[in-house]
Specification:
single chain; AF0060_NTP-PPase_MazG-like; mainly alpha; globular; MazG-like family protein; about 60% helix; MazG-like_dom; about 110 residues
Amino acid sequence: MDNYTAFKQISLPKLNNLQLSLESTCLKLMEEAGELAQAIGKFRGMNGEKIHLKEQEVVEMISKELLDVAQVAVSMMFVLEEEYGINIKEKVDDHINKLVKKGYIKIEK
């Protein structure tokens, strides 16, 4: 991965003291995605409601909800690793290679 021109990394911790399963994590992911959609749609007035929030307040809400989605997605990867033996690094590398093939990431030469 060192050859990619632009690569930002976000590291999110494994959550402790939770009894996570694939199913419970998937449901939580859908819940958080719904909250993200609400922040994007409702608070930008896309559903017809008149919400009086400043743009920066909306962007802050979106960023918080997006991080909730990311945290749950990362937690789901930990469940796949721990319960089903999935190699996270291998899957991330495969994903990045897919992005390169599709032209979403350019390799620096």
